[in-house]
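Rotation project, supervised by the postdoc (A.L.). Task for the rotation student: set up a whole-complex structure prediction and record inputs and outputs verbatim in this book. Inputs entered:
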Amino acid sequence: MRISDLTRLSWDQVRRRKVVTMLCAAGLSIGCAAIILAMSIGESTQQIVESELNSFLKMDEITVMPNSGAMPGQDNPDQVNEEANKRGLLTDQKLEVMRNMKHVTAVVPYQTFDHLEMTTADSKEGYVEVVATDLTRIKDFGETFAQGKADSVDINSVVLSYGATMGLMDEETRNKLYEAMERSGYDRSSQEQYRNMMVIPTAMYQTQIQLVKYDENGKQLTSTPLQVIGVLKKPKGRSDISIAQDSKIYISIETAEQLRKELVPSSVENSTPTYNSVKVKVDAEQNVKQVEEQLQRLTVSTQSNLLQKEQLEEQFAVFKAIAIGAGVFILIIASISIIVAMTMSTYQRRRQIGIMKVLGANLSQIRNMFIVEAALLGFLGGLLGIMFSYWIVWGINALILSLNSGESDISIFIPYTAIPVGLAFAIMTGIISGIYPAVSASRTDALTAIKRD
Amino acid sequence: MLRVEGLSHAFKNGGETTLVLQNINFHVRKGEMIALLGSSGSGKSTLLNLMAGLMKPTEGEIYIADQNIVKMNENKLAEFRRKHIGFIFQAYELLPNLTVRENIEMPLVFQSTRPSVRKQKALQLLEQVGIPDKAELFPSQLSGGQQQRVSIARSLITEPSVIFADEPTGNLDTKTEEEILAILKELNQTMNTTFIIVTHEREVAQQTQKIITLRDGQLQTTQPAVDPQAEAEEVQA
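Outputs recorded:
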C-alpha cells in the first residue's frame, strides 16, 4: 500500500471522526504542552539563575587567598606553622608572577578593612565595607563608572559602589525611623517605609566623606576627609535592597595604610604588604581551570565559580528531568484517553474494516492505517500543544509583569529545542497508544464484521 | 477453475454440533456463470464464504486457479483474494466516505497500483456498467441500482479469476434486478469472467448457465439452467 494512500485514508478518518479527533488531540496537546512548558520553565529558570549568579559570581574570575593559616591579622600565629604561613601569603612578588601567567588579563589585590561608619559633609551616615585595592584596575573586572573615573589616583581618593550611595540619612532621621518602627511593632507598612528609605540614593560624586571607628574604650576615631572620585554603576538584575546591602568603598593600598594609622593606631606597620585576596581575571571561561592549577603552584588557595556552575547545572538537570518526567506522565495519562477513543472508533468501524479485508487488505495494511491515523492525531495534538504552551507562557509572563508593576527582567521563554521534542513526544505517544487499537482492528473477523442481522 | 472436493462444515453451538454442509463436490469452468440456489438455511451462504476464504471448512478442499485456499494462512488468503476474487454484496457495501471512483479503486489501493492506472481502470469500468457520469459522487447520492453497479465495477477492477455475488439483486426492484442481471451476463460474456451467484430466487438462477441446488446442506442437483423465455415457449407449444 502506497504511503500517500495510507496517509490519505487515515487523514480522511481523522477529518471525519471529529469527536474522536478532538478527544485524542486534546489529551495529547495537554501532554505536549506540559513537556514544552517543563522544558521552557527549566531552561528559563536556569538562564535567570545563571545570569543572577554571573552578576554576583563572575565565571571568568578566580579569587586567590592566602594558603591555610596565613590570613593577615590572624590572632594566634603560634598555632600555625610559621614557615607555611609565610609561604602562603599573598605578596607583591606573587602578584607579579600572576600577572605574567598565560590567559591572565588582570590581577587586582584586595585588603579588607572592617565595616566602618561613613559620614558625609552634610552629616548623613551609613555603613560601608572598606576594601583596599588597585583603583586603576577596577574597570578590568567589569565594573563601570556611573560618574567619574579612576585612571590616576591621588591619596585620599575613594570610589563608591552604587550601594554605598543608598540609604544614607542623618542621625535624627534614622532615629525617627527606628522609633516609628518600634511604635508600630515592626508592622508591614513601617518595614516597607524603612526599605524605601534604605534604597534612596544620595549624590556623592566629588563630595567628601570621612570614616569613623570606635576603639575598645568607645573613643571615636575619624579619618581625614576622603574625596569621592567615582561612583560605580548600579548593577543590573538585582533588587534595590540587595544592592543597598552591598555598600562598598574602594580605597588605594596607600590610603589603606594611612587609614590603618588613623583608625587602628595599635596596628604594627608591615614593611612587605600582603593581601587578603587577589582577583585574577582570565581571558575565557574555558581557561579558568588551567589558570587555577597554575595559581595553586604558588602555594595559595584558589576559588573559582566553576564548581558552583557545575553544581547548579547538575541541580537543573535533575529539575528538568523531574519536569519532563511530569510531562511524560501527563502524556501517559493522555494516551489512555487515546486508547479508549481509538478502540471505540475501531469498534464503530468494524464493518468498514471487514469490507476492506474482503477486498484484499491484509493484517499489516489495516494495522498501518490505524497507526498512521494515531500518528496524525499525535501530530495534531502536538501542534495544538505548541499553541497552548505559547499561550500559557504568554500568560505567565503577563502575570510576572503585572506582579512586578510592569517592570521585570524575569520572563519565561520557549527554547527552540522544546518544540520538536514536544511534537516528537506527542507523535510517539499517538503511535504507541494507537498500537493496541490498530492490532485489535487488524484482527477483526471480516465475516463477522460484514454480517447483517 | 474452481473445484470443491468433499467439502463439509459444521458449527459448534455449545455442546451441540450442527452440520451445515455435507460432502459437497462440484466444479466450475473458467468463464462459466453459475447459480447456487437454495432456500434460507440451505447452506448456500456458508458455501460462498468458504469458497471466498472467509471461513475454514471442517473438512474438504477448495481449489481456485489450481491453488488450495484451505491451506492458506490469513495473510496469504488476503493476497489471494486481492488477486483472484471479486465480491458483489447484496447490500453493496460501499465505503460511504469515498467517492464512487475511489470505491472502485479500493482493491487496487491494497495492491499498491499507481493512482493514474487505478483512475483509468475505474473510469473504464464505470463506462462498462453504464454510469460514467457518477465517478465523483458519493454512494449516498446514488440509487440502489447505481450502487450495485459500482459494486460490480469494484469487483472487476482487479480482473479476478472468479466473482462471488451474494444475492446481488436481493435489495432491488424487478426492473433494476433485470438491468443488473443483464450487466452481469454481458460482463461474463465480454470479459470471460467466472461468476458464482448465490440466490434463493429461481428466476435469477435461471439467468445463469448452470444451477447448483442445495437443500439442508447437501448438493441436490447440478443442472443446466433453462432460459425462462424458452421454457415458456415450450409450455405453450
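Student's summary: Chain A has a mean pLDDT of 83.
Supervisor addendum: The radius of gyration of chain A is 34 Å.
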